[in-house]
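Field: sequence (string)
Field: structure_tokens (string)

Example rows 1 and 2, in order.
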Amino acid sequence: MKRETLVGIAAGLLMTCSVPVMAQELGYWRASSKTAHDITGDIGIGETNLLINLSSYNIAQAKTLTPAEVSTVFDTDSAGTKRAHLYGMSIPATKKFLHKNTLCGSDDTKWMVTYVDGNMLQVAFFSGESAPAFTPDAMANATNLCGIYTYVR
């Protein structure tokens, strides 16, 4: 190979390795759980938006959850290495999705937690102006957890 080609390949690899890792939840997801089939259908997650039933909503990543925090929301190993993301959002309670369902009943949806394990995505939606508290006691008594949905790629 020519020297210029090798330098070009090396530069390309270096640039690829220096790009920050994107959130694994980004992209198109097919509804897998009954709840997801009945309420949201398939979804799409972008860096700044969530697409549900052809409607787009702005989202902003608020926090990366530790494995211990993840295990308070989803059935995961608290000693594991997988992390989740908390997003702020605003979906009005009046917004109807599939079969005239809402995400949080009569409350606005304000928070979303996403957790990816392989080709499976779990999403939890929360109401309330304050971010959810990710402790075992808080989640056991949470009145702002609207539902948990499962999707696959």
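Row 2 begins here:
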Amino acid sequence: MIKKYYGLCFLLMTLFYSGCAAVEGIFKAGMWWGIFLVVLVIGLIFWIISKLFGGK
């Protein structure tokens, strides 16, 4: 039961992260690094959702 709260907490932290700070970090690091991070975050979100709502 507590594991679900960890996932929810992590999801809420990523949703409330400032959009301006994310864009600033992407431009500082470079376009390809930003694309890699976006794909990684989207994959992580899908993985968390599948763990929360998936079967066993």
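free_text_note (row 2): The CA atoms of residues 18 and 24 lie 10 Å apart.
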